[in-house]
């Protein structure tokens, strides 16, 4: 096998690589340490306008985190003692991969444990004339089998101000964020609504949008969740800055905020004589004189005759003349021995044996049971429905936006996958503040990831943008493996032909095979 061509191609690539791309390669090797400082510089973010911020945390400052956040040491009510404790572990850590230098997050370390942590807002958020914008990042570093990554905006209350006692019973105004179990993918937006008539508090769940959610749970990348809630009751949910769901608190929640004005009267009953039958058998129809209900469905075919050659005196089955009584047959125990029956061989050549009977045919006079035809019911009153009455529980709340004031923020979670990273929480009343905050944090992370995951193609595209003069060189660079491979196949085909279609692979000596493979491996590795 002629290996020369492989080496020529290989040297060609090496040469090109060294001249045009050597610089590029070096840059990338240093990327992990230097390039961060080079082009994706991270500084702990500062809100664009502190006066519009109710809460923010970038989790880069562990000392500050320890001052602000309180881990719950409460017990969950109504479950077994040994699993009731909120003993899930939280830590301030850098992400497992693709992290920016100096960027840390809040990580839920443990799995299959109740975990709760919370912090007071810098100032309470009062639902009045300003919108509420809540934004944070989640990285499901280990994916998610079953569990939530949502946050709760805790309602301000004297009774619940001890954050170390934060549990699932702690009242919240809003719950927002991802949640998944098995194939059930959710992005919660729940608010608690107080019935103005009797004070009962009910959860209102945002209706599911049609968009698929699968990817954000599976790709293990940082995702940005934004909730914008306006004083006119409209809301918008964004994932990674793209609108994912929107609507109104008054129209897009279940159960609805406002009950129906009228309901069906539960006391109303269907009157005895209410006729709901749309059609009835015609009471005036009579059975025709000649309608014989007793005529059978089938009758003997009188016109049939016994086929010629039918052997009326022969039995259909006869004792097997070749059967022998078994040696161990005990007549006392087993009874008198009889040979088994076989089909009568005499019948094999005849249309049939034994008594001939004419076949049955359908009876043309058969009519069956007579029934009166159906007609429209003259007494039909339609389907009965109870009358409607004014709903005694009716109320109209035109401002469900006016939720209980939020005093704190918290995560109260249970997860089957560990290492969920939360980062860059912000609560503000100006969208641009959240937008700027994301540009300084989330966007940089995604840029870093894009940079780290640069593939052969990505690197090429980037270099082409930076250095248009190298287009031609890149074209050759890309074409080389293709040309090389086509040449290889071409040689292969030629050899096959020469050897009368014996596969060339089989003909190669093992040594040659290994060499060829290594050359190609080295070749692609260089790319
Ligand atoms: C309050 O009213 C709602 C709606 O009518 C009802 O479902 C709920 O049971 C009532 N609660 C109390 C405590 O009466």
UniProtKB/TrEMBL annotation:
Membrane topology: Single-pass type I membrane protein
Gene Ontology process terms (BP): ERAD pathway; protein folding
Localization per Swiss-Prot or TrEMBL: Endoplasmic reticulum membrane
PROSITE patterns named in the record: CALRETICULIN_2, CALRETICULIN_REPEAT
Record-level Gene Ontology MF annotations: calcium ion binding; unfolded protein binding
Gene3D superfamilies: 2.60.120.200, Calreticulin/calnexin, P domain (2.10.250.10)
Signal peptide interval: 1-22
Keyword set includes Transmembrane: yes
Pfam family, one: Calreticulin
Family according to the record: Belongs to the calreticulin family.
Function: Calcium-binding protein that interacts with newly synthesized monoglucosylated glycoproteins in the endoplasmic reticulum. It may act in assisting protein assembly and/or in the retention within the ER of unassembled protein subunits. It seems to play a major role in the quality control apparatus of the ER by the retention of incorrectly folded proteins. Required for embryogenesis and larval development under heat and ER stress conditions. May be important for germ cell development. Involved in neuronal necrotic cell death.
Protein name: Calnexin
Annotated organism of origin: Brassicogethes aeneus
């Amino acid at each position: 096998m002629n290996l020369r061509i492989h080496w020529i191609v290989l040297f060609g690539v090496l040469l090109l690589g060294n001249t045009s791309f050597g610089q590029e390669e070096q840059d990338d090797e240093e990327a992990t340490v230097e390039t961060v400082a080079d082009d994706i510089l991270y500084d702990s973010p500062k809100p664009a306008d502190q006066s519009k911020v109710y809460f923010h945390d970038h989790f880069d400052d562990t000392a500050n985190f320890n001052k602000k956040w309180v881990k719950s040491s409460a017990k969950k009510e109504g479950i077994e003692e040994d699993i009731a404790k909120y003993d899930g572990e939280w830590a301030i850590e850098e992400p497992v991969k693709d992290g920016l230098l100096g960027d840390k997050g809040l990580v839920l370390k443990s799995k299959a444990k109740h975990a709760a942590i919370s912090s007071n807002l810098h100032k309470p958020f009062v639902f009045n004339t300003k919108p509420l914008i809540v934004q944070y990042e989640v990285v499901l570093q280990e994916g998610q089998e079953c569990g939530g990554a949502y946050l709760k905006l805790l309602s301000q209350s004297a009774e619940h101000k001890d954050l170390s006692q934060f549990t699932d019973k702690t009242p919240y105004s809003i719950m927002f964020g991802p949640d998944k179990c098995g194939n059930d993918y959710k992005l919660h937006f729940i608010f608690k609504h107080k019935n103005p008539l009797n004070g009962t508090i009910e959860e209102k769940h945002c209706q599911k949008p049609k968009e698929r959610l699968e990817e954000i749970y599976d790709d293990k990348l940082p995702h940005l969740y934004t909730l914008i809630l306006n004083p006119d009751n409209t809301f918008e949910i964004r994932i990674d800055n793209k609108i994912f769901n929107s609507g109104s608190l008054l129209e897009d929640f279940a159960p609805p905020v406002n009950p129906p004005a009228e309901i069906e009267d539960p006391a109303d009953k269907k009157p005895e004589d209410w006729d709901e039958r749309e059609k009835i058998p015609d009471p005036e129809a009579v059975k025709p004189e000649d309608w014989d209900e007793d005529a059978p469905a089938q009758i003997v075919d009188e016109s049939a005759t016994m086929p010629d050659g039918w052997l009326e005196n022969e039995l259909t089955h006869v004792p097997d003349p070749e059967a022998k009584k078994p040696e161990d047959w005990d007549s006392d125990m087993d009874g008198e021995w009889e040979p088994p029956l076989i089909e009568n061989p005499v019948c094999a050549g005849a249309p049939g044996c034994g008594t001939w009977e004419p076949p049955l045919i359908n009876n043309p006079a058969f009519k069956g049971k007579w029934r009166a035809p159906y007609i429209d019911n003259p007494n039909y009153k339609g389907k009965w429905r109870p009358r409607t009455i004014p709903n005694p529980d009716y109320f109209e709340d035109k401002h469900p936006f006016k939720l209980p004031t939020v005093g704190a923020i918290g995560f109260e979670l249970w997860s089957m996958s560990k290492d969920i990273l939360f980062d860059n929480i912000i609560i503000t009343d100006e969208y641009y503040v959240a937008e700027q905050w994301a540009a300084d944090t989330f966007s940089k992370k995604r840029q870093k990831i894009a940079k780290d995951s640069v593939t052969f193609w990505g690197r090429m595209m980037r270099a082409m943008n930076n250095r248009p003069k190298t287009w031609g060189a890149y074209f050759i660079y890309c074409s080389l493996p293709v040309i090389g491979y086509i040449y290889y196949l071409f040689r292969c085909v030629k050899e096959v032909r020469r050897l009368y279609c014996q596969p060339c692979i089989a003909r190669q000596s093992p040594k040659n095979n290994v060499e060829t493979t290594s050359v190609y491996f080295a070749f692609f590795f260089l790319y």
